[in-house]
Amino acid sequence: MYHKVKKKVHVLLHPTQGETKWDKVLNAFLIILILLNLVAVMLETEASIYEKYKAFFDGFNYFSVAVFTIEYVLRLWSCTNEEKYHHWFWGRIKYIFSWDALIDLAAILPFYLTSFIILDLRELRLLRLLRLLKIFRLTSYMKATKVITNVFKNRFKELTIALTMVCGLIIIAACLMFFVEHPVQPKKFASIPDTLYWAVITLTTTGYGDMVPITSMGKLLTGVFSLMGVALFALPAGIITSGFLEEIRKSRKSQQIICPNCGEVIEGEPHDYH
Q1: pTM of the predicted model, to two decimals?
Q2: Could you tell me the end-to-end alpha-carbon distance of the chain, in angstroms, rounded to an integer?
Q3: Which domains does the chain have, with CATH numbers?
């Protein structure tokens, strides 16, 4: 009975492992609560709103911490259902120091710390901002986010190459522009590290205008690097897009069913056919 209940709790908290209505209801509730916390944290910084609805914000904070605490405890209790955390003691220690568990802990720990430490309003709000980390846990509540994770895993090498090329172009642009513009603008283009800022702003086509070349060669290089930046910064977007298309094709392929009578491929969810 004990192990059966623990397994059910684990499945409820991990939507990728369950297909019941309660899985969807619970995870939808947690997603909405996380999003409402993000809104609350932002509204609390507006003095007029916070002072008027202070009791509501405090009550919502207590409620959120209570829910997140229960969730954290249940996740810690049921984590031994996973193979990598199977040991009753060391498995839970390993889980506590996992990325997901640390985020969950950071979202509730400031509340309990303030019970023992007296803080002013500014420090209290700063600690409450840690609840924003919960947004990184949204991937644990939605099955669709698994596609995003798979895209970055499968395209990691291509994205690393693209990032290396981008970084290389930024460094080359900064070095060339420093040697061209430093003699005439020694304060603005004071060093190559300072010029790296110009390179990033130029290659991303942001162009704040606070560091502008005035020599003919500098202007020419700016035009060349701007065009190269547009082309090169589009590489990661193309890689990610192709990755998404590939994952969608895999997902559709996994949903294909062969008719036992005629042998034709049937498109649709497996549970739609019997």
Answers
A1: 0.64
A2: 32
A3: 2-143 (1.20.120.350), 154-272 (1.10.287.70)
